[in-house]
Design a protein that fits this description.
By secondary structure, the protein is mainly alpha-helical. It is built from 32 helices and 7 strands. The protein has a 5-stranded parallel beta sheet, with helices on both faces. α11 crosses α14 and α22 runs antiparallel to α23. The protein starts with about 35 loop residues before the first helix and ends in a 36-residue tail after the last helix.
């Protein structure tokens, strides 16, 4: 596992800093001391030297996830592409599994190809450690996907943690036993000291601590739950009460391993020591997947037995007892349950026969949340909305499943999948959004409005994926149904997205006509949001490609003004792109760079891969005009690496291809074919984060003043083809 540094490009840019712990796919930072497990850590490291798949197995609560995360933190410097974590425990639908891997790898794929193909392509040339955690309920699906990734990516190694092996050829299994006596006592003392500030193990309590750890078989979760009780009890009292629970439950389940009984006893004992309110909330909170916030818990779980104004105090007690974990991130303070604890609560919820009602309330909350976020997307809180939906994605998936799997609720699934358009399109989730939309539209519904919204959204997604036939079918159905039902809003959106389809298919006159008509309809019905502004930007693109640059600038400056008034950033990035194109065409290279750098920063913040790669393509041409042909070729290589995860390079459009074609032709001429290809290959080794850091941080790292090159802009009214090295056309 010798780390091999990635080569830098010609300008010597270094890799950007790694994403912070807690980012999607990044193992979270450890919040308390890692105790013991020296032999197990050494075994994991030793096995990963020779094996590509190492699996930690053991019962729930034995510390598999913690050991895997700690081992990954130690080993991350040995992998030049770092460590990524895939949390499977919050998933219920196997169809979402591949999207969870995509999310963990920070792979924004806008294409219509299966996520697995994108994953295999992305990992093919990487040296990376993938930690797979909590997969036991989807073991067959995880095994099949993991095997496919290992076969396609020779530099990939996987550290899995679950209650059973994956069952793959070449898998090295490391059963994780409970902690030895010394480590167990050390862990209990460490966690007890966090609860009782002056707690120490000494002559007065050492025997009781030793016996307690032995009775709990050294299971970390049981030890931590027991330590949490020291707020109210002494070690001797904890031991006495634990002994009572052992006698109550021992032998109650035939065929269950003693250690499994011990864990259940520890959790059950903790459950019985809770107040009735705490037990009820524990059960009700089990309907959440992953994290949740206080407001969601209050809506879903409150009632006559749990008044809303008392819920916070009950949650605080569950946090204090380690039933809930408090976490803080971009979306604020949130809570989650350990999987074993959630499963125990879910059993009690079913026993109350209240599960179906709680699941409906959960779904209703997330329907409301999506509605609010859609409205708030067009506001200064756009970035907060993106972070919120990122954090809520596991629960939104549960709400979608609940809607689509419940008879008579298909319209709710269609509404929810359509309402999340801003997330699918604006935050790099096209592939997953397409899956939910297609699934929702397969179901019959009597609610025309929800179905029409899902239709124009799936049409929009299909356009961006390059699925012309899928887009045409969805938008035609939407238009016909909107006309039949008199739905003016859906009709405007169908016309808008059909105009967008004409734009990427090079039919600029038709695109201009349809987009102008759609904007007129939006004004008639009083519609104003990010979609409407994007329609105006798309119209600006259509007229700019026909040579009407002054009108294009007017349209985009208007969009810029409205975005400023409303705090909108996502659509603003596309307006900046068109303004940069016009500035470059008019010979204003410095202004074009300023606009494109702002555009790229916004796109990257929203994980909008399409907007980012378009900006990089135009930046290459601007860079060439500044006299740096080598850097221009590097940027073209970086863009070429991104396009396969977006779709057809530059949409296969000769209009969108003009800057690329001109840049390639003149850079080859200036550098020579061999040097151009060397620089392009160097750029192809950069990922998006490295490319963005290179562009936005390059101003202070230039070797000297750039010498402007004379580059004649293309004739915008006539699409240009680029002669490639072999004399043919290139689209990217």
């Amino acid at each position: 596992m010798r780390r091999i540094p990635r080569p830098d490009g010609p300008s010597g840019a270094s890799s950007p800093p790694s994403p912070p712990p807690g980012s999607p796919g990044i193992p979270p930072a450890e919040l308390n001391r890692f105790v013991g497990r020296d032999d197990e850590l050494a075994a994991v490291t030793r096995r990963l030297e020779s094996a590509r798949l190492v699996t930690l197995t053991g019962l729930g609560g034995v510390g598999k996830s913690r050991l895997a995360g700690h081992a990954a933190a130690i080993l991350q410097d040995r992998f030049c592409d770092g460590v990524r974590l895939v949390e499977v425990s919050t998933l219920h639908d196997p169809q979402v599994l591949e999207h969870a891997f995509v999310e963990a790898l920070a792979l924004a794929d806008h294409t219509g190809r299966p996520p697995r193909a994108a994953l295999c392509h992305h990992l093919a040339d990487r040296e990376l450690l993938l930690v797979l955690d909590g997969y036991e309920h989807l073991v067959a699906e995880c095994a099949e996907l993991t095997g496919a990734l290992l076969r396609s990516a020779p530099g990939l190694r996987v550290l899995a943690a679950g209650r059973r092996p994956l069952g793959l050829p070449g898998e090295h299994i490391l059963p994780l036993p409970p902690m030895n006596a010394a480590d167990a006592a050390d862990l209990f003392a460490d966690r007890a000291a966090a609860v009782v500030a002056d707690f120490t193990v000494g002559p007065g309590n050492a025997a009781a601590v030793t016996e307690l750890c032995a009775r709990l078989d050294g299971i970390p979760l049981a030890l931590e739950l027991a330590a949490g009780r020291l707020r109210a009890l002494s070690v001797e009292q904890v031991l006495h009460r634990l002994d009572d629970r052992f006698r109550l439950l021992t032998g109650s389940t035939r065929g269950t391993l003693p250690r499994h009984q011990t864990l259940r006893t520890a959790i059950g004992w903790s459950h019985e020591l809770c107040t009735p309110q705490e037990r009820l909330l524990w059960a009700r909170l089990s309907v959440f997947a992953g994290q949740f916030d206080l407001e969601a818990a209050e809506y879903v779980c409150s009632g006559p037995e749990l008044p809303t104004d008392e819920l916070l105090d009950v949650i605080a007690e569950l946090v204090a007892q380690s039933v809930l974990v408090r976490e803080e991130g971009a979306a604020g303070v949130r809570y989650r349950m350990l999987d074993t604890v959630r499963a125990y609560g879910a059993g009690w919820l079913e026993a109350t026969r209240d599960g179906e009602r709680l699941r409906r309330r959960h779904r209703d909350w997330y329907l409301g949340l999506a509605t609010w976020c859609e409205l708030d997307w067009f506001s200064p809180r756009q970035a907060e909305v993106a972070a919120r939906i990122d954090a809520e994605l596991p629960n939104l998936r549960v709400a979608l499943e609940q809607s689509l799997d419940t008879e008579g609720d298909a319209h709710l699934g269609q509404y929810l999948a359509g309402t999340l358009w801003f997330y699918w399109v604006g935050c790099g989730r096209l592939s997953e959004g397409r899956q939910w939309l297609d699934r929702a539209l397969e179901l019959e519904s009597d609610h025309d409005e929800a179905r029409l919204k899902a239709l124009w959204v799936v049409g929009h997604v299909a356009v961006l994926q390059g699925d012309t036939l899928g887009a045409m079918a969805a938008l035609q159905e939407c238009r016909e149904e909107a006309e039949r039902t008199g739905n003016a809003t859906a009709l405007a959106y169908a016309r808008h997205r059909t105009g967008c389809l004409a734009l990427v298919c090079d039919d600029m006159p038709r695109a201009e006509k349809l987009l102008s008509e759609a904007l007129g309809h939006y004004r008639e019905i009083g519609e104003l949001n990010s979609n409407v502004l994007m329609g105006q930007v798309e119209l600006a693109m259509a007229v700019a490609f026909q040579g009407e640059l002054e009108y294009a600038v007017q349209l985009c400056e208007d969009v810029r003004q409205v975005c400023g008034d409303h705090g909108e950033r996502w659509t603003l990035a596309y307006a900046l792109f068109v303004l940069a194109f016009a500035a470059w065409t008019g010979g204003e290279g410095r202004r074009a760079r300023e606009l494109l750098e702002e555009c790229l920063a916004i796109d990257h913040a929203f994980h909008d891969l399409l907007g980012a790669v378009l900006a990089i393509e135009l930046l290459a041409l601007v860079t060439l005009g500044e006299g740096d042909a080598e850097e221009a070729a590097v940027l073209q290589g970086a863009a070429a690496r991104i396009w396969p995860t977006v779709g057809l390079p530059l949409f296969g459009s000769r209009y969108f291809n003009q800057p690329h074609a001109l840049c390639e032709e003149q850079a080859r001429k200036h550098l020579g074919a061999e040097r151009y290809e060397d620089c392009r290959r160097a750029g192809h080794r950069l990922d998006l984060d490295q490319t963005v850091a290179r562009v936005l941080g390059s101003a202070d790292g230039l070797p000297g003043p750039r010498r402007p090159m004379r580059i004649a802009p293309p004739a915008t009214s006539e699409p240009a083809a680029s002669p490639s090295a072999s004399g043919g056309e290139t689209a990217g």
